[in-house]
């Protein structure tokens, strides 16, 4: 039954997100073409327009992945559709798991599309070499490979944003347990959960720093970063985020199992 729930959730997201994916790629291709031709006044104007449109689509992809996931979560559980969802022969855990997996899939797809769009628009041999040299300049002194640096950075950004998305789920569950001002309280509870999770990450990194001088250097040094500190920071931050996301998903399921107040 989880598969059927997930199928409908994915259909909803595909319907709402596919247009942004397509437009981002299209504007990226047009931008790439215009960058390769002689930069006349008209070509420059059109290039600036298509570049602006591409970045607008990139921003819309990120924002709408968050917003549509939250709207889908709310509407399918607490709005009119919830009367059907909550009478299906499925558990609350399966309902939540479907939303969680759907959000995870589209976050991954959205990240890929965003990176692909920017790469299509700007990446060529010269820029690739320039980018590699720039990253190498950062990573050489830190004794970390460029691949590890990029994957670590992107991994933390991804987990932080996915954590924000799940904090939104948590906020909606708490907000819709109230009798009044459900939307406003959902936003408030979501923000509180997000800032609490960020504070936990920072606090745990600081605690590790009490036992590791290189990590503590992140809090005390103003310029130099000790060798190895970045590797520890990447690994530690990602592990903490994964644990927080896992624990919060358990809490969300427990709250859902206590009952749903439909509108």
Specify the helix fraction band: over 70%
Radius of gyration: 22 Å
What is the average of the pLDDT values?
Answer: 84
Query: Helix/strand-derived class?
Result: mainly alpha
How many distinct domains? 2
Distance between the first and last residues' Cα: 25 Å
Shape: flat
Number of strands: 0
Classify the oligomer: single chain
Description:
With 263 residues, the protein is mostly helical. The chain folds into 2 domains: 1-123; 125-263, no CATH class. 84% of the residues lie in helices and 0% in strands. The protein has 9 helices and no strands. Helix 6 runs parallel beside helix 9. The longest helix has 38 residues, at 41-78. It is flat. The protein starts with a helix and ends in a 6-residue tail after the last helix. The mean pLDDT is 84.
